[in-house]
Specification:
The protein is α/β, with parallel strands linked by helices and 173 residues long. It has helices at residues 22-29, 47-56, 69-72, 75-78, 92-97, 109-115, 124-145, 151-165, and strands spanning 11-13, 37-39, 62-64, 84-86. It is built from 8 helices and 4 strands.
């Protein structure tokens, strides 16, 4: 993967990239000064490379890491860097609703954002649109794989996320 001449990239998904050299990818990704959203779902990124990525990319806001077995073994790795990390090991509604201080119901932040009651920065629309898209694709892949041990995830938040995403105005969500 070579991103040498790419500087303006704000959102990137490497989800499902199984033969990715995490060391090389990490070097390239840390050179993206405007990267706000990164999806590493279904990859074999290890805690060391994950930590290097999230710490060295100052502009990074949201990291999606669903079905990353190595990271799921130690959720503290994902939750200790000041970035919003989405995965099986945490409550997606709670993590994302932290961007919306006026939201009283954590599960209502998407509708609050869509209705415009919590728009507090210019780039929030783009970020939330990307999050909607990434979550919809992550949930689709999770459902397709029918991974064992995810019954509680679906009961606690998966179904709620799907129902929330059905209200999206994006055609491909």
């Amino acid at each position: 993967m070579s991103l040498t001449n790419v500087l303006q990239l704000r959102f990137l998904s490497v989800a499902g990239a199984t033969d990715m050299d995490c060391d090389s990818a990490g070097e390239n990704l840390t050179g993206l000064p405007y990267l706000e959203g990164l999806d590493v779902s279904r990859t074999d990124v290890d805690p060391e490379n994950f930590t290097r990525l999230v710490v060295s990319i100052g502009s990074l806001i949201v990291v999606c890491a669903f079905n990353c077995p190595v990271l799921e073994e130690d959720p503290a790795v994902c939750n200790s860097h000041g970035k919003m990390t989405l995965g099986f090991y945490n409550d997606t509604f709670k993590v994302l609703s932290s961007m919306f201080t006026d939201t009283k119901n954590e599960q209502a932040f998407f509708s609050d954002w869509r209705n415009g009651s919590n728009k507090n920065e210019a780039n929030l629309d783009n970020l939330m649109s990307w999050v909607e898209w990434i979550l919809s694709h992550a949930l689709l892949r999770i459902a397709e794989c029918n991974l064992t041990g995810l019954d509680q995830f679906w009961l606690d938040q998966g179904v709620g996320l799907l129902l929330t995403l059905l209200q999206s105005s994006q055609d491909d969500v």
